[in-house]
Automatic annotation (TrEMBL):
Name of protein: dTDP-4-dehydrorhamnose reductase
CDD domains documented for this protein: dTDP_HR_like_SDR_e
Enzymatic reactions: dTDP-4-dehydro-6-deoxy-alpha-D-glucose = dTDP-4-dehydro-beta-L-rhamnose; dTDP-beta-L-rhamnose + NADP(+) = dTDP-4-dehydro-beta-L-rhamnose + NADPH + H(+)
Enzyme class, first EC level, given as a word: oxidoreductase
Length: 585
């Protein structure tokens, strides 16, 4: 019996069964359990892949065929993307870690694209697909669709099965766009031509002929949406160079992907994200792609994990910062760097000064040189933590430690530089990647029976996913002129998730969410202590509450409550099994 669990993508289900292991006997037991439960006849196969190999997402439409996957050996990250424009989770993607250990399978309904990347040296995937009567239309989604910004585990070493006809989600699913047709053209007469109408989900084969070994090219044709599908074939048949392309060459309005003519014609602004390996930098790279061409910069490309390969920068060396910026010549410099280890900053004030204070000042200088604007992130730790009132932008900073002091200097340098800028002062950041207190507590609570947290240290947990998305939304109104937008609307704003909590209350919320998501939690309760009683060497402010009302009012934003955002991010964390997979129900 296979048990099913719903996921965040409507209709996609996690499959759990008793069967584990890699033997072919168990693979066939799995296949027959799938047939029994989900019906047949089915096409079954076992696919072998190597580390880094990526199979681009594909989906089925007409005749709708469902698919199931399970990892027989090794580990792979499977990404599902909802391409059904009438679905409540349309355009959302979600990743799952499938491994031989967690014995997890996935059920993928028609209309949901699925692709995978292997993370272990080798892996085997059991793939079962219901055969349906008539033709079932398979399509491919670009694995690097910039709008989706899928967080694949790494830059693919090897790209399997992404045909040249792979489309962006917008092209596939938006019924409001003019119809897009895909045309296969060959150099021989009576070539096969497939026309596909995403809006109507109709596919036709115009001319059939015996197989030819002639090289096949692909072209995409944008047609007038007002034309009915039946009119289209004639038009295509008449288009020289497409059907029976005797004279290869571009027909009016028809362009080959190979010529890159489908790429946007207007040059996109370049956005340089410095610190792309950090928790916030990573999410900024994912979201800011919606606004321009993102170039990451960090000192360890291995930690960047996204495409394209980042530019090298060591921000403790001024020359390195200047070289990186002059090389990339961005319109926008986003500084997501920081020496964020508060104890390390206290012990090594010279490095803290270089990274948190001097580097932002140099970035601002260089931004002026190349005519760029700047985004920067400041911290709640610039305040002394007195009182209980949330700090607003007019309150006077008075940092207690080197981290706070150097961050304040960096912020002040940018403000004084005259460069158009937006500085977001935030606090208590966490993410589903990188090291942070949320991930640590989720991990620790499965095997530690006691953890002590401060009951008198208050702030707002804020997810980097939300912060990066919110910044992108803010900037999107200024994409025509990012620098001009910053000059007009920029400045310093406080921005964090809504509501305040002590560190203990945050811990309690994490445990409650983990239990709700059926993580086997061992920890029952946190021990509370005063911050001063904890073995932390660095003096830290107690009141880190930030008042984000100024930015919310100015831009009409609704801030999510920290609890709701935390629940969402923990669900993502557990679903994608960044934690040990066997601890997930
Ligand atoms: N974390 C938090 O709670 C808060 C953070 N902030 C601010 O937000 C920003 C992002 O924070 P967060 O994502 O949490 O930080 P992380 O510690 O996750 O990331 C910091 C980034 O800075 C990079 N970096 C540090 N030193 C150097 C160097 N010498 N050369 C090149 N890169 C370097 C790191 O690179 P590498 O990966 O190689 O180390 C990493 O990419 C920082 O400015 C921080 O001060 C503000 C408020 C709260
Ligand atoms: C990382 C970690 C934290 N904790 C506890 C300790 C502490 O009470 C709480 C928070 O830990 P942190 O290391 O995030 O604490 P801290 O360094 O105080 O966090 C600060 O970081 C800098 C960069 C900022 O700018 C601030 O806004 C703030 O987020 O969680 C654990 O119990 N286990 C862990 O593994």
């Amino acid at each position: 019996m296979i048990h099913t669990l719903p996921t965040r993508i409507s209709g996609v289900e996690i499959l759990r069964s008793q069967a584990t292991g890699t033997s072919s006997k168990e693979a066939s037991a799995w296949f027959s359990a799938i047939s029994q439960q989900f019906g047949g006849p089915r096409r079954e196969r076992v696919v072998c892949t190597r580390a880094g190999q990526l199979t681009a997402p594909s989906y089925y439409r007409l005749g709708g065929t469902d698919r199931t996957l399970r990892c027989l050996s090794g580990e792979m990250v499977v990404v599902v993307i909802d391409t059904r424009h009438d679905s409540p989770t349309f355009a959302q993607w979600h990743s799952f870690l499938l491994s031989s250990d967690n014995a997890r399978g996935l059920w993928i309904p028609a209309g949901v694209a699925v692709g995978w990347q292997t993370v272990s040296p080798r892996a085997q995937l059991a793939f079962s697909q219901r055969l349906c009567q008539g033709r079932s239309q398979q399509g491919w989604l670009r694995w690097d669709d910039p709008q989706l910004a899928i967080g694949w585990p790494s830059i693919p070493q090897d790209l399997l099965e992404q045909p040249a006809t792979a489309l962006d989600l917008e092209e596939i699913a938006n019924p409001d766009l003019p119809c897009l047709a895909q045309v296969r053209r060959t150099k021989v007469p009576q070539a096969k031509c497939s026309v596909w109408y995403p809006a109507a989900a109709i596919r036709r084969t115009l001319h059939r002929q015996e197989k030819t070994r002639t090289q096949i090219q692909f072209a995409k044709v944008q047609v007038d949406a007002s034309r009915t599908p039946l009119q289209l074939p004639n038009e295509l048949s008449n288009a020289p160079g497409v059907v029976g392309a005797r004279q290869p060459g571009a027909a009016a309005g028809i362009t080959s992907r190979a010529t890159s003519a489908m790429e946007p014609t207007t040059a996109k602004d370049v956005i340089l994200v410095i610190g792309s390996s950090g928790q916030l930098g990573h999410d900024l790279c994912r979201y800011l792609r919606q606004l321009g061409t993102v170039v990451g910069a960090c000192r360890d490309p291995e930690k960047h994990g996204l495409l394209p390969v980042p530019t090298f920068v060591d921000i403790s060396r001024p020359a390195s910062i200047r070289t990186a910026i002059r090389k990339v010549r961005p319109k926008l410099i986003v500084n997501a760097t920081g020496l964020t280890n508060v104890d390390r900053a206290e012990k090594d004030p010279r490095i803290a000064q270089l990274v948190n204070a001097a580097a932002p000042a140099i970035m601002a200088e260089e931004a002026r040189e190349v005519g760029a604007g700047m985004i920067h992130f400041c911290t709640d730790m610039v305040f002394d933590g007195s009182g209980e009132r949330p700090w607003n932008e007019r309150d006077r900073p008075n940092p207690l430690n080197q981290y706070g002091r150097t961050k304040l200097l960096g912020t002040e340098a940018i403000r004084a530089s005259g460069v158009p800028h937006l500085i977001l002062r935030t606090g208590w950041l966490y993410s589903t990647h990188g090291e942070n207190y949320v991930k640590s507590i989720v991990d620790l609570c499965t095997y530690r029976s006691s953890i002590t947290l401060a009951s008198d240290h208050f702030g707002s947990p804020t997810s980097t996913d939300w912060l990066a998305r919110t910044l992108t939304e803010l900037l999107s109104s200024g994409t025509n002129d990012l620098v001009g937008w910053l000059a007009q609307f920029g400045g310093l704003y406080h921005l964090s998730n809504l509501g305040f909590a002590s560190r203990v209350e945050v811990g309690d919320q994490i445990i409650a969410t983990c239990k709700q998501l059926t993580l086997p939690v061992v920890l029952q309760k946190f021990h509370s202590a005063k911050q001063a009683e904890l073995p932390t060497p660095t003096p830290c402010p107690l009141n880190c509450r930030l008042d984000s009302s100024a930015i919310a009012v100015k831009f009409g934003m609704t801030l999510p409550r920290w609890q709701a955002e935390l629940n969402l991010q923990i669900a993502k964390l557990l679903d994608s099994s960044i934690l040990p997979a066997q601890s997930v129900a």
